[in-house]
């Protein structure tokens, strides 16, 4: 055939490889128009059209045309599975259709075509994702019909076209994705860096251009090989703080610095406010508790003034009330004082014995039995001895106050825990829930501080405390020692 051979041939083959590098759709369109017109020359076709799928894989739109096919309206489209081209797109098989080919499966369709042609080739464009279009080549009546060699060549051309189009689209996609990523990256409120394997900055976003962030020693020290990490970073000069998250990507890594300065300030403010609220509550409780003994002292003093002969009797009352005030001061101070974390090795059995000996007279006076049960193997524990004494005293006094005459209170301990139990009045579920809150009390003379002091101390020693109770049956407090006890 005249069109094949010499310059035309090498020109055509070379033009197939002139794949558009810029991804804008204009250059792809121009490339397709060029290829389609060269196909016309090369195959001696009088009508050439190329249909391509776009968003909808079931529809192919006219992408380029040459020769008689230039008459096809620009918005023409083919549905996959419909018509000759649609069927070729659906099954991916190229076809050679000839008027004289009586066996053609498309005989009936060809017969109905508006511009009856002598011979045509319908070649699907097969890409990695499947069929992305169809190339139609036709020769008018009066010319030689296409032969199998033409079909094979057309198939090769279509394969190359499919690859070129797919690549151009991939590049376009990559560029859109990159543009999207860049816009997110730039707009991130956190400072973001891309680091190479030596810790050098490859890319950084707007927030990362902050000079104070650039000065952070973290940025100077960091270097590969990287592993995922999150760390707290702070700068004493500016008083700012961040959470830094490092994530390796191949040899490189992303580093994101999320500023926590404001959050830290707020956290400190919240804890300051809650401390203030606690002080407020405490002041009210102190005033309330001090008033009763003070009233007693004032009336006793007035009595002495009016009738000096009663001085002895009322002086007793004054002393008694003064002692009460003193005890109250101790309790408040205990609550307000931060827990002493003296880590001394102590015999817990000795602590229990000392406290029980001190309290025994009070138990005897009320007629409540006090049983002590301590494991022979009880080892030494670590902590502040006077703190543990305070804990036991508070629990035992509560038990004594809750138990009527004739009742029993028991103290026990083993290497893991100790407990104080009684068969007294017990607590409702709500009371048990609130028992450890500061200032919660059901007693007319109570301060509601005993158990919160106990809890604060146990928490500070990394132990835990729990209560089980039933109204009318009794109560059991159990304190678990910290897991790492002294050997
Ligand atoms: P206070 O003894 O001053 O009331 P605590 O903090 O020691 O304060 O106790 C809080 C509350 O918990 C008590 O008022 C009481 O209602 C309840 N409680 C504590 N221990 C017992 C117990 N062993 N049996 C019944 N109730 C108890
Ligand atoms: Mg108490």
Strand content: 15-25%
Number of helical stretches of at least 4 residues: 13
Structural class: alpha+beta
**Overall average residue pLDDT:** 87
Which percent bin holds the helix content? 40-55%
Outline type: rod-shaped
Q: Describe the strand arrangement of the main beta sheet, using strand numbers.
A: 3-2-1-6-5-4
Low-confidence spans: pLDDT under 50, at least 5 residues?
A: none
* Rg, Cα atoms, Å: 46 Å
Tell me the number of strands: 18
Distance between the termini: 100 Å
- For the report, how would you describe the main beta sheet? 6 strands, antiparallel
Bound molecules: adenosine-5'-diphosphate, magnesium ion
Write the layout of secondary structure elements.
Blueprint (H helix, E strand, L loop, with lengths): L5 H11 L8 H19 L3 E7 L5 E9 L9 E3 L3 H9 L3 E4 L8 H6 L6 E9 L2 E10 L8 H40 L3 E5 L5 E4 L6 H4 L2 H5 L7 E7 L4 E10 L2 E8 L1 H46 L4 H26 L7 E4 H19 L2 E6 L5 E4 L1 H18 L5 E6 L3 E6 L6 H6 L15 H11 L3 E7 L3 E7 L7
Magnesium ion (MG) binds next to helix 11.
How is this structure best described in words?
The chain is rod-shaped. The protein contains 13 helices and 18 strands. Helix 1 (6-16) runs antiparallel to helix 2 (25-43), helix 8 (261-306) runs antiparallel to helix 9 (311-336) and helix 11 (385-402) runs antiparallel to helix 13 (450-460). It is of the alpha+beta class and 487 residues long. Helix content is 45%, strand content 24%. The strands form four sheets. The chain has a six-stranded antiparallel β-sheet. The chain has a five-stranded antiparallel β-sheet with strand order 8-7-11-10-9, with helices on one face. It binds adenosine-5'-diphosphate and magnesium ion. Residues 394, 397-398, 450 line the site of magnesium ion (MG). Residues 394, 398-399, 402, 422, 424-427, 431, 435, 440-443, 446-452, 475 line the site of adenosine-5'-diphosphate.
């Amino acid at each position: 055939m005249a069109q094949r051979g010499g310059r035309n041939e090498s020109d055509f083959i070379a033009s197939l490889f002139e794949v558009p590098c810029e991804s804008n759709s204009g250059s792809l369109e121009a490339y397709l128009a060029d290829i389609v017109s060269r196909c016309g020359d090369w195959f001696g076709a009088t009508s050439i059209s190329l249909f391509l799928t776009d968003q909808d894989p079931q529809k192919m739109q006219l992408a380029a045309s040459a020769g008689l096919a230039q008459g096809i309206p620009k918005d023409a489209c083919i549905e996959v599975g419909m018509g000759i081209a649609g069927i070729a797109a659906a099954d991916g098989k190229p076809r050679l259709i000839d008027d004289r080919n009586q066996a053609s499966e498309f005989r009936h369709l060809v017969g109905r075509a508006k511009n009856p042609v002598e011979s045509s080739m319908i070649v699907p464009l097969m890409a990695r994702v499947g069929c992305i279009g169809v190339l139609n080549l036709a020769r008018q009546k009066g010319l030689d019909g296409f032969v199998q060699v033409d079909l094979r060549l057309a198939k090769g051309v279509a394969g190359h076209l499919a690859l070129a189009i797919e690549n151009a689209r991939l590049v376009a996609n990559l560029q859109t994705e990159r543009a999207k990523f860049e816009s997110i990256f730039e707009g991130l409120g956190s400072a973001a860096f891309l680091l190479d394997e030596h810790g050098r900055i490859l890319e950084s976003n707007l927030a990362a251009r902050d000079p104070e962030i650039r000065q952070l020693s973290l940025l100077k020290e960091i270097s590969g090989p990287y592993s995922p990490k999150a760390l707290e970073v702070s700068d004493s000069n500016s008083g700012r703080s961040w959470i830094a998250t490092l994530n390796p990507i191949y040899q490189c890594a992303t580093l994101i610095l999320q500023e926590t300065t404001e959050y830290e300030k707020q956290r400190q403010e919240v804890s300051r406010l809650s401390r203030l609220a606690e002080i407020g509550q405490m002041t009210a409780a102190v005033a309330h508790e001090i008033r009763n003994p003070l009233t007693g002292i004032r009336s006793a003093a007035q009595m002495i003034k009016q009738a000096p002969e009663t001085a002895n009797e009322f002086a007793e009352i004054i002393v008694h009330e003064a002692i009460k005030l003193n005890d109250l001061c101790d309790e408040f101070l205990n609550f307000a004082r931060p827990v002493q974390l003296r880590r001394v090795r102590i015999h817990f059995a000795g602590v229990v014995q000392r406290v029980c000996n001190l309290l025994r007279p009070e138990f005897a006076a009320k007629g409540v039995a006090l049983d002590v049960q301590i494991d022979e193997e009880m080892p030494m524990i670590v902590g502040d001895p006077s703190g543990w004494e305070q804990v036991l005293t508070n629990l035992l006094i509560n038990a004594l106050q809750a138990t009527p005459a004739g009742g029993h209170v028991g103290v026990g301990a083993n290497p893991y825990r100790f407990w104080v139990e009684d068969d007294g009045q017990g607590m409702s579920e709500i009371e048990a829930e609130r028992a450890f809150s500061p200032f919660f009390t059901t007693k007319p003379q109570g301060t509601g501080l005993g158990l919160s002091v106990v809890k604060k101390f146990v928490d500070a020693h990394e132990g835990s405390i729990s209560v089980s109770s039933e109204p009318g049956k009794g109560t059991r407090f159990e304190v678990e020692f910290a897991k790492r006890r002294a050997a």
